[in-house]
Amino acid sequence: MYRTTLQGVLLASSILAGVGTAAAADVTLNIESWRNDDLQIWQEKIIPAFEAKHPGIKVTFSPSAPTEYNAALNAKLDAGSAGDLVACRPFDTSLQLFEKGKLEDLTGLEGMKNFSDVAKSAWTTDDGSKTFCVPMASVIHGFIYNTEAFEKAGVEVPKTVDQFFAALDKIKADGTYIPMAMGTKDMWEAATMGYQNIGPTYWKGEEGRKALIAGTQKLTDDAWVEPYRVLAKWKPYLGDGFEAQTYPDSQNLFTLGRAAIYPAGSWEISLFNTAGLKLGAFPPPVAKDGDTCYISDHNDIAMGLNAASAHKEEAKVFLEWVASPEFATIYANALPGFFSLNSTAVEMSDPLAKEFVSWRETCKPTIRSTYQILSRGTPNLENETWAASANVINGTETPEAAAKKLQDGLDSWYKPAKM
Amino acid sequence: MTDLAPDQGGEAARRRPRRWHILVFLAPTVIIYTAVMILPLIETLRQSFFNVVDGEHVFVGFANFATLFGDPRWAADFWNALGNNFIFFLIHMAVQNPIGIALAALLSLPGLRFAAFYRTAFFLPTLLSFVIVGFIWKLILSPIWGVAPWLMDLVGMKALFGPWLGKSGSALIAVSLVSVWQFIGIPMMLIYAALLNIPEEVIEAAEIDGVTGWGQFFKIKLPLILPAIGIISILTFVGNFNAFDLVYTMQGALAGPDKTTDILGTFLYRTFFGFQLQLGDQSMGATIATIMFLIILTGVCIYLFGIQRRIRRYQF
User: Fold this and answer.
1) Residue B97 distance to chain A (closest CA, Å)
2) Which domain, by its residues, includes B187?
3) Quick one: what percent of chain A has pLDDT higher than 90?
4) Which residue in A83, A102, A123, A412 could disulfide with A97, CB within 3.0 to 4.6 Å?
């Protein structure tokens, strides 16, 4: 059913596209985003589906590189040349744009009732009164593995940390596959796929994260240093020259079938599916079998309205549609691994995505520890965490020293009592 | 008759054409240069004295500079970037310019075959975009796909290969050498031109006096091209302290690993525009830009007043 409607939509859009060029009165909405990987999906699936229902509104998706997006967007908004719709990073980055009056208040949008408060939390003011972006998706961290590699080395899917390292040892001894595909060159891999992936298990998810914000826990506490100690043990299982291995290198190593385990974010699923490998996934391993598992289920992307847009009415029509279950279904299926935040349950067809989302039922979800409030000052905790995680894996800094540096940096500007 | 004189004078003044063409020809450059260079420069200098306090854009005097040099974190980042920048510059001075001079000397040898080909080949990287250069070298040096490990394997030196761009000890040197590779054409061309300018008579006179080969180069040619070497040094200095692009394309805005390749340009970029969750700070960015401007200004002044005046020039 879905497939035929999609084909119909695609057909309709191709006809409409021909007509559209002739009709000059159409309003064109520009979307700013950092998801340059998704360009094709927006052009082929999402935008045609919208345009088919809303003649007279054209939508263009114009993404920029992920690491440059924030800087580019800020500059464009200041200069008044930003698109009508902007993809919102979670928490402070977008909050500050809203406070500066760059983003429109969307609290009154009809579609907002489709989202729970938790879903909206990343794009709501600290007092919870105003929401300024329509939540689109969250991403879940975990490990993706190559089934064939596991069979070849004769390992089971690990549940505990000990099993995890035992499995890595076996794969390494077997020698056919690089045990783990990750590099430290781009640094954020080490922080996001490493520290934020396995960390919640040690600091007990939300409990630790909130305690850190409240100031009752410190980054130098055992719960926050232990993940670094575990990360330091990853070093021998990474590929040759991992210090100079970039994020695309890691992706390629894994999709070429040369690596066994990939510390992942669920956003990788659609890319990895194209590789034609048999893949599975497991959540971050726990200390003892039967312990509660924690996963990072991070509110990642939303869409806001540029306050300086010349076409606010049309943009709101689009945002209403983004808030609808219809969009949630198209988006979650077109981009398996981006899990809808919509309250309406979305039926997904991708097995790997289903595996990831199933952890929501057994594990306790949390968001990345550095994102809310703690990255407001200078030095920026998130960026410092990147460097610290990479250093710890490279072995150039001890876990304790790295943690101390982070806490010192945080202490230099963050006063929990004042918040 | 007497009242004719002032009339004549007036006529003479009228006849002398107003030289509008000077203004007309100067205008495009002056306007464009003012708009894209001078105004932004003044605005940057101005902005370094302002900051946002409690949501208000206010004049803060030298407070930004006090933060940059007084706050231990800002100062550590700044001195790290400045130190790296000096290493970056010294590598260029020690590697790029001597090799550039040597290449020029070889190219200017009479009777060298394929001289035009070599000249073009050496100069070509300079014409390439830094994005291409950065990307190509990242690939060449990649421990996974790169040709560097394979080539070194061919000559039995695989063991010496390392993930240079990812190691804190070697990353800055590797990036500097890539930059040297890219820009080697500029000193080579300038020196080459200077060498060609040396009159035949001088060389012939030297040969008659029995000064040939290496002696001829060091005793005759080198003193004659010293002004060109001075120009190259100052160009290298300005270029290096403004550098940003190659580090950014090869190592990213965080200038990893652990800020060991962070130079003033990348430090400025991160501060001014922000990076990932770090938001841009225009005032501190402008402050860093001002310091960069002052460093370059000082360097150029030292050269202009201290060195260039002492260089002896020979007129032929």
Assistant:
1) 29
2) 71-308
3) 45
4) A102
> How is residue A238 annotated by DSSP?
B
pLDDT in tens, B295-314: 999 999 999 888 877 777 76
Other CB atoms within 10 A of residue A412 CB: 13
Residue A331 CA, distance from chain mean position: 14
Assess if residue B198 is contained within a domain.
yes
**Residue A322's closest CA among A127, A22, A26, A61?**
A61
Tokens of A87: 């993809």
Q: What are phi and psi of A263, to 5 degrees?
A: -65, 115
Nearest to A59 by CA among A100, A16, A111: A16
Question: Quick one: average pLDDT of B136-158?
Answer: 88
Which residue in chain B is spatially nearest to A397 when comparing CA positions? B258
B164 to A394: CB separation less than 8 angstroms, yes or no: no
Q: By the CB < 8 Å criterion, does B279 face chain A? A: yes
- Averaged pLDDT for residues A359-372: 87
How many A×B Cβ pairs under 8 Å? 124
Cβ–Cβ contact B144 with A under 8 A: yes
* Domain annotation covers residue B294: yes
* B144·A241 Cβ contact <8 A: yes
How many structural domains is chain B composed of? 1
DSSP string, B211-236: --HHHHIIIIIHHHHHHHHHHHHHHH
Residues of chain A contacting residue B144, judged by C-beta atoms under 8 Å apart: 239-241, 245, 249, 252-253
What's the rounded mean pLDDT across residues B273-287? 84
pLDDT (mean) for B29-41: 94
- Chain A partners of B281 at a C-beta cutoff of 8 Å? 378
Question: What tokens does B269 get?
Answer: 């970029």
User: Token pair for residue A4?
Assistant: 């035929």
Residue of chain B with shortest Cα separation from A370:
B277
Separation between Cα atoms, residue A183 and residue A230, nearest integer Å: 16
Between CA A32 and CA A15 the distance in angstroms is 26
The whole model's pTM is what?
A: 0.81
Contact A387 B281 (CB under 8 A): no
Q: CA-CA distances (angstroms) from residue B62 to A49, B74, B282? A: 56, 15, 15
* Structural domain includes residue B101: yes
Q: Are residues B279 and A70, on separate chains, in Cβ contact within 8 Å?
A: yes
User: What are φ and ψ of residue B302, in 5° steps?
Assistant: -55, -45
Domain limits, chain A:
2-137+298-353, 140-297+360-418
What is the pLDDT, as a whole number, of residue A127? 82
Q: B297 in helix, strand or coil?
A: helix
Q: How far apart are CA A73 and CA A56, in angstroms?
A: 27
Q: In the CATH scheme, what is the code of domain A140-297+360-418?
A: 3.40.190.10
Alpha helices, H only, A267-367: 269-273, 312-322, 325-334, 351-362
Q: Which fold has domain A2-137+298-353?
A: D-Maltodextrin-Binding Protein; domain 2 (3.40.190)
Whole-angstrom distance, CA of residue B80 vs CA of residue A346: 51
pLDDT digits (tens, 9 = 90+) for A380-412: 898 899 999 999 999 999 999 999 999 999 998
Has residue B114 been placed in a domain? yes
